[in-house]
Design a protein that fits this description.
This protein is α/β, with parallel strands linked by helices. About 35% of the residues lie in helices and about 25% in strands. It has 3 domains: about 5-245, Glutamine Phosphoribosylpyrophosphate, subunit 1, domain 1, CATH 3.60.20.10; about 255-440, 3-Layer(aba) Sandwich (Rossmann fold), CATH 3.40.50.10490; about 445-585, 3-Layer(aba) Sandwich (Rossmann fold), CATH 3.40.50. The strands form 4 sheets. Strands 3-2-4-1-10-9-11-15 form an 8-stranded antiparallel β-sheet, with helices on one face. Strands 5-6-7-8-12-13-14 form a 7-stranded antiparallel β-sheet, with helices on one face. Helix 8 runs parallel beside helix 13 (about 400-420) and helix 9 runs antiparallel to helix 17 (about 475-490). The longest helix has 22 residues, at about 565-585. The radius of gyration is 25 Å and the shape is globular. The two termini are about 30 Å apart.
C-alpha cells in the first residue's frame, strides 16, 4: 500500500526522496509527494498518477546543502486520489507523511474545526499535523508536542513529521505499519517503510517495533518504546538484493501475500469495526432504502467471494441474494428490477466483463455498489458507492489477499445491513464483531503448519485430478481452492459441494483421485464427514483439513480450534492457498506468473 521515505543529510535531498519512492512503486499508489526543509524554508511538491508527474514538477528544484526531507506514495483510503489528498500534508509550519488509518480522526477533526482550523484534504492524515501544531502552542518543545499527539491517536500508523520549530529533525512514530531507519559511514539518516529504498544508501538498519516513537537529527537517534522508556537502536546489516527486499525474503510474491494477510485484513477492519456496530463512512444508508434483493456479479476469484457473500447475506442480513458470473450475465437478457442493489466485485476495478454488467445495471436505473481494491478505477468512478478492500498491490497473479479482504468486507457489510434491517439482535451483532476482530489471528501462518503442508505436497504431484469439497460457505472455498491449484500448478482440479459426490462425480473415485476435504467443526460436520466417507470407500485418496482428526483420511492437516465456522473458513483458506503454492513449487513452476494468465483481465 502506501510508501514512506525520509532523509537527513547534505546530498541532493530531492533526488534521494524521488529515488526512494521509485523503489516503492511495486507497492502501488495513485499519488505522490515530497516536502524538503532547508534553511528554515519548506519546499513541497505533490502530483497524482505516476512518479514521472512528480519528477516533472520538481525538475527545477535542487538542494545542495543540509536539509531534512520526507516523501510518500499514497494508495487512497480516505478521499479521492487528488493533489489535495496526496501527502505530505501541511499545517502552519509543519509537514507530515503517514501510512495506516487513524480510527478516531473524525472526533479529532471536529474538535480542531471547532478551534478554527481549516482542512484542505479529505484524509485522516491531515488531522495529525494540525493536532501536533495545536499541542505545540502549549508545549515546551516540538518533541513534547509530538509525544502528546501520538498518545491521542487511535489506529495504525507509521508517521514522519518535520517542523520549522526544530528544523534539523525528523520525528517518527510506528504502530501497526512498518517503519525502519538506516545509517551509513557518512552519518546520514534514511527512513523508509520497507528495505528497498535504503539498499545502496545504508549499511545497517533499525526496524522499529510497535509503540516506538522519537526523533532523528544529524547526530542523534532517540527512540522511546510504548512504555515511554528510552531504548537503544538495534542495528542489523541490510541486504543488498532489491528484489529479495521487495519480497521480504520470501521466494515468491504469492507466498509473501499469503503471509501478510493477517496485517492486510487488520487494515481492512480498521476504523470500520467498533464495539457495537460496523461503520462504513463511504456508504449512505439511503443506498439500501427500497432494496429487497442483492445481486452480486463478478468473475473468477471475485465470483467465489460473491458466492461466499450470498450465504452470509441471507443468513445474517435476511435479504434475498443472487450471484452472477459476469461473462454470462451480459448476454442472457436478465431481468433487473429497481428494488435490487447491484454489487460488482473486482480487485482491479477494470475487469471488462464485470464493468460491462455494471454499465447494464446503471442503464436499468439500479442502485450500484462496487467492492474494489483500486480507488479511481473505472468501476469506482461509475458506481453509486464503493467499499475499498485496502488489500494493497497483489503482485502474484493468483489472488490470495484480495479474496481474503473481499470476504472480510462482505462479512462486515452483512452485519451493517443486519443492523439496518434489525435482522440480528444487538447481542448477536456484538458477538459477530468479536469474531471479525479475530480474523487477523486466524489467518496467521504458523511455521509448523506450513512445514506440514510442504512435506505433504510431494504426494500430490500426479494422479488424474483433484476434488476440493465443502458444504455451505465451504463450497465456494472449495471452488477457490481448486482454482488456485489449477492456476499455478496446471493440474486438473474441481470444486464441488460435498453432498453432490453421489450425483455423478463419485464415478471418478479411485486411488489416483485426490480429494481435498474441507471439514469444519462448527458447520455441518457430520454431514460432510459422511460425504467424505463415501469417497474413501471408493478408494479416493483423502486429505482432510479439519480441527478434528479424521480416521479415514490418508493425510490430515489439523487446523486450530476456532469459536465459529467463519474463523474456520479463514484458516482453511490459508491452508488451501499454501497447499497449492507448495505443489506448484515442487513442480518447478513460476508461481507468481503462471502461464496464459494476466492479473487484470480487461478483455472479454
Amino acid at each position: 500500500m502506501c510508501g514512506i521515505v525520509g532523509y537527513i543529510g547534505q546530498k541532493n535531498t530531492k533526488e534521494i526522496l524521488l529515488e526512494g519512492l521509485k523503489e516503492l512503486e511495486y507497492r502501488g499508489y495513485d499519488s505522490a509527494g515530497i516536502a524538503v526543509l532547508s534553511d528554515g524554508v519548506f519546499s513541497s511538491f505533490k502530483a497524482t498518477g505516476k512518479l514521472i508527474n512528480l519528477e516533472e514538477k520538481t525538475k527545477d528544484f535542487t538542494t545542495d546543502k543540509f536539509a531534512v526531507g520526507i516523501g510518500h506514495t499514497r494508495w487512497a483510503t480516505h478521499g479521492k486520489p487528488t493533489e489535495l489528498n496526496a501527502h505530505p500534508h501541511v499545517g502552519e509550519n509543519s509537514y507530515i507523511v503517514h501510512n495506516g488509518i487513524i480510527e478516531n480522526y473524525a472526533e479529532l477533526k471536529k474538535a480542531l474545526i471547532d478551534d478554527g482550523v481549516t482542512f484542505l484534504s479529505q484524509t485522516d492524515t491531515e488531522v495529525i499535523v494540525h493536532q501536533f501544531e495545536k499541542n505545540l502552542k502549549d508545549a515546551d518543545d516540538a518533541f513534547s508536542a509530538f509525544k502528546k499527539t501520538i498518545a491521542e491517536l487511535e489506529g495504525a500508523y507509521a508517521v514522519l513529521l518535520v517542523t520549522k520549530a526544530e528544523n534539523n529533525k525528523i520525528f517518527f512514530a510506528k504502530h501497526g505499519s512498518p517503519m525502519l531507519v538506516g545509517i551509513n559511514a557518512q552519518d546520514e539518516k534514511y527512513f523508509a517503510s520497507s528495505d528497498t529504498p535504503l539498499i545502496g544508501h545504508c549499511t545497517d538498519v533499525n526496524y522499529f517495533e510497535d509503540g516506538d516513537y522519537g526523533y532523528v537529527s544529524h547526530g542523534d537517534i532517540l527512540i522511546f518504546n510504548k512504555n515511554n522508556q528510552q531504548k537503544q537502536p538495534h542495528f542489523v546489516k541490510l541486504s543488498a538484493n532489491k528484489l529479495s527486499a521487495q519480497k521480504d525474503g520470501y521466494c515468491f510474491f504469492m507466498e509473501k501475500e499469503i503471509y501478510e494477510q493477517s496485517n492486510i485484513i487488520a487494515d481492512t477492519l480498521l476504523g470500520r469495526v467498533t464495539e457495537k456496530e460496523i461503520i462504513f463512512e463511504e456508504l449512505d444508508t439511503k443506498l439500501f432504502e427500497g432494496i429487497n434483493e442483492i445481486k452480486l456479479c463478478a468473475c473468477g476469484t471475485s465470483y467465489h467471494a460473491a458466492l461466499t457473500a450470498s450465504y452470509i447475506f441471507e443468513r445474517y442480513s435476511k435479504i434475498k441474494t443472487s450471484v452472477e458470473i459476469a461473462s454470462e450475465f451480459r448476454y442472457r437478457e436478465p431481468i433487473m428490477t429497481k428494488d435490487t442493489l447491484f454489487v460488482a466485485i473486482s480487485q482491479s476495478g477494470e475487469t471488462a466483463d464485470t464493468l460491462e454488467t455494471l454499465k447494464m445495471a446503471k442503464e436499468a436505473s439500479l442502485k450500484t455498489l462496487v467492492i474494489c481494491n483500486v480507488d479511481n478505477s473505472s468501476m469506482v468512478r461509475l458506481a453509486d458507492a464503493t467499499i475499498l478492500m485496502r488489500a494493497g498491490v497483489e503482485k502474484g497473479v493468483a489472488s490470495t489477499k484480495a479474496f481474503a479482504t473481499q470476504v472480510t468486507v462482505f462479512w462486515m457489510l452483512s452485519l451493517y445491513l443486519a443492523k439496518l434491517k434489525n435482522s440480528l439482535t444487538q447481542e448477536e451483532i456484538v458477538h459477530q464483531l468479536e469474531l471479525l476482530r479475530a480474523i487477523p489471528t486466524s489467518v496467521k501462518v504458523e511455521n509448523s503448519m506450513h512445514e506440514r503442508i510442504k512435506r505433504l505436497s510431494k504426494r500430490y504431484l500426479h494422479g488424474h485430478g483433484f476434488f476440493f469439497i465443502g458444504r455451505d460457505i465451504f463450497f465456494p472455498l472449495a471452488l477457490e481452492g481448486a482454482l488456485k491449484l489449477k492456476e499455478i500448478s496446471y493440474l486438473h482440479a474441481e470444486g464441488y459441494p460435498s453432498g453432490e459426490m453421489k450425483h455423478g462425480p463419485i464415478a471418478l473415485a479411485d486411488p489416483e483421485l485426490f480429494t481435498i476435504a474441507l471439514l469444519p467443526e462448527h458447520l455441518l460436520y457430520e454431514k460432510s464427514k459422511s460425504n467424505i466417507e463415501e469417497l474413501s470407500a471408493r478408494d479416493s485418496t483423502i486429505c482432510a483439513i479439519s480441527p478434528i482428526a479424521f480416521e479415514k483420511a490418508d493425510d490430515f492437516i489439523q487446523t486450530k480450534k476456532q469459536k465459529d465456522y467463519m474463523l474456520e473458513f479463514f484458516e482453511i483458506m490459508v491452508v488451501v492457498q499454501l497447499l497449492s503454492f507448495e505443489i506448484s513449487m515442487r513442480l518447478g513452476n513460476d508461481v507468481d506468473m503462471p502461464r496464459n494468465l494476466a492479473k487484470s483481465v480487461t478483455v472479454e
